[in-house]
Design brief:
Strand content: 15-25%
Structural class: alpha/beta
Strand order of the largest sheet: 1-7-6-5-4-3-2-15
Radius of gyration: 19 Å
CATH architecture: 4-Layer Sandwich
Helix content: 25-40%
CATH superfamily: Ribonuclease Z/Hydroxyacylglutathione hydrolase-like
Number of strands: 15
Length: about 300
């Protein structure tokens, strides 16, 4: 399906080196090169792309306060969501030797502020294409009081950006028309599901072919219910079937979609107050271990710092 154009605007504490090298570097040559860069404290893996790696994926930040990821292939450079400030996105891209000026576009899942806050400083200023559905574009422009160079897709359809094919699918969340993405790259498939109240059959079907999956693990149910700072109405919203996925919900969905081809599972959108990275990691990892899926590396993402770049 073609996209239509809308209105234009004008070391953890000194971890082992093997732990710092992305899983995508499987052969000896690339691992040797990566280790050399790690020894020098480098975060930018670009120089070893010539050793056979063609795709890189970096979660720049993920949590209740802001979500943004970067995907680079030989033919495209994209952000997926832009929920950090424009300044923060620029700074975090700089840690991997990239800048917003080199982007080919921004994919948006939905219009909540923790997914679009950076559009004012990036898309509007640099006139970057923003890929979203029609209802999301209308909500973005109303909330941020800007016009974006929108490339409109229909939810459930597919489109291409360079050498990436993007499949879109509906997710159950309290936004106008929220979506998840399956990104087909020259090296493998990346599933992207950040906000959903429960795992539907549609979501499971669409992300089952993922080699890398970003999946929401927003809260621990008990911690959320016991949280004295949140009113009951907000707790009900988060716990609803159109709210956010709990650690147990993430474990259920991960167990449903895990395959021999899934090598990395990122746990995203963790609540600062109602979850802990080690808790989310333990719940999901234990479920996969019980199923014998010990080949999947599980990693909890951070709101404050980018995750190590994953390379193929």
């Amino acid at each position: 399906m073609a996209v239509t154009q809308g209105r234009p605007s004008r070391n953890r504490a000194n971890p082992g080196l093997d732990d710092t090298i992305p899983l995508g570097l499987k052969n000896q040559r690339t691992r040797r090169a990566a280790k050399s860069f790690a020894e020098k404290g480098c975060r930018d893996w670009t120089p070893i792309l010539t050793c056979g790696v063609s795709v890189s994926f970096t979660i720049l930040g993920s949590g209740s306060g802001g979500n943004c990821a970067y995907l680079e292939t030989p033919g495209a450079r994209l952000l997926i969501d832009a929920g950090l400030s424009g300044r923060q996105i620029r700074q975090r891209l700089a840690t991997i030797a990239r800048s917003p000026e080199t982007l080919h576009g921004i994919l948006i899942t939905h219009e909540h502020s923790d997914h679009i806050a950076g559009l004012v400083g990036l898309a509007a200023r640099l006139d970057l294409p923003v890929y979203c559905n029609r209802l999301t574009r209308e909500a973005i422009e109303a909330q941020l009081h800007i016009q974006i160079s929108a490339r409109i897709f229909d939810t459930g359809g597919s489109f291409e950006v360079g050498d990436i094919t993007v499949d879109t699918f509906a997710v159950p969340h309290d936004a106008n028309d929220p979506v998840g993405f399956m990104l087909h790259t020259p090296s493998g498939n990346i599933g992207f599901v950040t906000d959903l109240g429960h795992g539907t059959k549609l979501v499971a079907e669409r992300v089952r072919a993922a080699n890398v999956l970003l999946l929401e693990a927003n809260h621990d149910v008990k911690m959320l219910r016991d949280d004295p700072r949140r009113p009951w109405s907000l707790k009900q919203r988060i716990l609803s079937r159109h709210g956010h996925l709990s650690n147990d919900g993430a474990a259920d969905l991960a167990g449903e979609v895990v395959s021999a081809g899934l090598c990395r599972l990122y746990l995203g959108h963790l609540s600062r107050d109602c979850n802990r990275p080690e808790l989310a990691h333990r719940v999901v990892s234990e479920r996969l271990r019980q199923m014998g899926a010990t080949h999947v590396q599980v990693e909890a993402t951070s709101q404050d710092t980018p995750s190590p770049t994953f390379l193929w």
